[in-house]
């Protein structure tokens, strides 16, 4: 069975590679010639554990191909997945121009039945827009090619995307024909054999499911950050509160860790897009707007703690940042809290020295030489006035505190992820600030 994937970004590359891993013949299409040439040579443009090895293996096995030629990828394809970007417009709505351009290109080239699948995260109604532009282009050609549209949203966590795809919690597919359903069942048969559930539903429900899932998770994060801030006012400890509620099976212990706010390519964009979709239909998602507002202000919490500790004057001081990416196991800097904190420090005439295991190159692309980049986590500490932990990479969890105290000018830690124990820090002579822990 042959599959075409249009777009070799995060979703498209993981989707195509994992489908190839199950034995399908997969052709990934992208308009970026340099990127395609790099992928053919095994150069992976994103950081995702295990992906590079899997790409190389499937290319060598003759199951995974990369091209800039859409027409070439359509030959004998049973399905085509659209996995191009949907960046937010200035008003928060999803920008569909890339998806609709792909739809028009498909309509100009399609010559046999296939299922066109929207894999990108898109607002309700997008699949119908894609169907319309494809049909328009087919009509212009004076032909009548049959095709179906389906929606198959991704639920991939950056840093664990391969496992999420190969061993999914669920597979959600929106269809409106039995023929399309049979094609999608064939594609996902290897996953059914492992008892992973497939939920077939109508297309609007499928499109809304992805936005709702991300918005619910974002709500949990912002709710806990709000409670963490209240803890500091009341003298409570959010870590104790978290344990107390996490044991409740109705709530669970996932996504209830306070921090510096959520970032990345999904939560901010999807929350904004769902708010906008509701507004366009004359409905106000008041809870979700509050989630967005809390997240925006949460990214400033650590900076506010820094300013308070130094009595509002950090001019000339140098801060060490451990972690730059919005979460561990990725180099993704989109909407990363670190960028907000760095810019605020720089605006106060402070200096920043940073280290991240994966996101240094991406940070340099965004910030250039505005900050100093260290070779490792301890190099980043040399002659700095305080440590600011932003991303909870595993290598930061058990550092050598004796080495740290020798390198830092002052033994001060601002822990944006609560990965250290406040009592242990104080016993080691550090001034310690966490999120919602009373300081």
- Indicate the radius of gyration in whole angstroms: 24 Å
The counted number of beta strands is 14
Share of residues in strands: 5-15%
Query: What is the end-to-end distance?
Result: 59 Å
Please tell me what the overall shape is: elongated
> Can you tell me the number of structural domains?
3
Helix content: 40-55%
The main pleated sheet reads as: 6 strands, parallel
Assembly state here? single chain
Given helix and strand content, the structural type is alpha/beta
- Uncertain residue segments: none
CATH topology of the largest domain: Rossmann fold
Mean pLDDT: 95
CATH superfamily of the largest domain: NAD(P)-binding Rossmann-like Domain
Kindly report the spatial arrangement of strands forming the biggest sheet: 3-2-1-4-5-6
Top CATH class of the largest domain: Alpha Beta
SS element count, helices: 18
Textual characterization of the structure:
The longest helix is centred in the middle third of the chain and has 32 residues, at 203-234. The chain has helices at 10-21, 33-40, 51-60, 70-74, 97-109, 126-140, 161-166, 178-187, 189-192, 203-234, 238-246, 267-280, 286-298, 301-309, 337-347, 360-367, 401-407, 422-427; strands at residues 2-6, 25-29, 64-67, 79-82, 115-118, 148-151, 171-174, 198-201, 318-322, 351-355, 372-373, 386-389, 412-415, 431-433. Helix content is 44%, strand content 13%. The protein is α/β, with parallel strands linked by helices and 439 residues long. A six-stranded parallel beta sheet has the order 3-2-1-4-5-6, sandwiched between helices. A six-stranded parallel beta sheet has the order 11-10-9-12-13-14.
């Amino acid at each position: 069975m042959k599959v075409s994937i249009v777009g070799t970004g995060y979703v498209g590359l993981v989707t195509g590679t994992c489908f190839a891993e199950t034995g399908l013949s997969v052709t990934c299409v992208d308009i970026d010639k340099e990127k395609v040439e790099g992928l053919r040579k095994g150069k992976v443009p994103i950081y995702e554990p295990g992906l590079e090895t899997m790409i190389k293996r499937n290319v060598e096995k003759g199951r995974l191909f990369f091209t800039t030629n859409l027409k070439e990828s359509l030959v004998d394809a049973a399905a085509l997945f659209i996995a191009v970007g949907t960046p937010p417009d200035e008003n928060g709505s999803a920008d569909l121009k890339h998806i609709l351009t792909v739809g028009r290109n498909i309509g100009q080239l399609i010559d046999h039945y296939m299922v066109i699948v929207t894999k990108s995260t898109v607002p309700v109604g997008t699949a119908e827009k894609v169907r319309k532009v494809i049909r328009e282009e087919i009509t212009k050609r004076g032909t009548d090619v049959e095709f179906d549209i389906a929606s198959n949203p991704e639920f991939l966590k950056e840093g664990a995307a391969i496992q999420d795809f190969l061993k999914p919690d669920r597979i959600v597919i929106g269809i409106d024909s039995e023929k399309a359903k049979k094609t999608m069942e064939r594609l996902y048969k290897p996953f059914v054999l492992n008892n992973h559930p497939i939920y077939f539903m109508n297309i609007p429900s499928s499109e809304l499911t992805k936005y709702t899932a991300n918005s619910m998770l974002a709500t949990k994060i912002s709710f806990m950050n709000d409670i963490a801030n209240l803890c500091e006012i009341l003298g409570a400890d959010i870590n104790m509160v978290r344990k107390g509620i996490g044991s409740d099976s109705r709530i669970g212990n996932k996504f209830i860790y306070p921090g510096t706010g959520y970032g990345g390519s999904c939560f901010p964009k999807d929350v904004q897009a769902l708010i906008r979709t509701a507004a366009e239909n004359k409905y106000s998602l008041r809870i979700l707007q509050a989630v967005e507002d809390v997240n925006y202000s949460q990214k400033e919490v650590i900076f506010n703690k820094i300013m308070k500790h130094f009595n509002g004057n950090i001019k000339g001081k140098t801060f060490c940042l451990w972690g730059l990416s919005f979460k561990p196991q990725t180099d993704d800097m989109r909407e990363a809290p670190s960028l907000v904190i760095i810019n605020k420090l720089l605006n106060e005439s402070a200096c920043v020295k940073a280290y991240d295991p994966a996101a240094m190159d991406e940070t340099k692309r965004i910030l250039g030489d505005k900050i100093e980049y260290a070779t490792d986590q301890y190099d980043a500490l040399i002659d700095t006035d305080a440590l600011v932990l932003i991303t909870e990479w595993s290598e930061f969890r058990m550092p050598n505190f004796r080495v740290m105290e020798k390198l830092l000018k002052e033994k001060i830690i601002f822990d944006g992820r609560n990965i250290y124990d406040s009592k242990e820090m104080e016993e080691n002579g550090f001034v310690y600030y966490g999120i919602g822990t009373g300081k």
